[in-house]
Amino acid sequence: MFHPFKAVKSLEISKEANKVSDSIKKTNLLDGDAAGGQVDAFRHAYWMARLHQEIGKSAARSLGKAHEKENYLTYKERKLEDGVAPDEISSKMDLYNNDQGLKLISKGIEVSKKGLIYRVVNAILKGKMKIIQKDKKGNFLTCDGVLILKESLIGKWENNKCLVSSNL
Fold it and tell me: Do the beta carbons of residue 121 and residue 39 sit within 8 Å?
């Protein structure tokens, strides 16, 4: 269990990360895709970077892992996360982007929130994060570029979605 200060701080930062991501989604900085795209990668990396900055790397990493375990339970209960059914590839993407976010900052280092936003956006544009491969219409694709029918994804934790560099 987190120290009470860290728990309160974590909740504040989680709300901040969602708010900043929603703002980024409305710009043309990234692809606007909050479910497997660059905005999703941004949300996770920024969240972890801010947590690292405020509560430390170990506590931040633990919180990120706990969140992904919760996503598996959400899947098992047939519930949605951010309007989308969680799955294994989304969880792998989130954990990868969490780790990348942790590398962008150190605890106690003075970097403004705006500066951190630019660090995360630049890392995404340089391909340092992962996103799920989709076509121009937002349909999921396999690593071979084959369309994955939405019906084939229903109720499946494991599927043929493909992780790619965030600059593709």
Answer: no
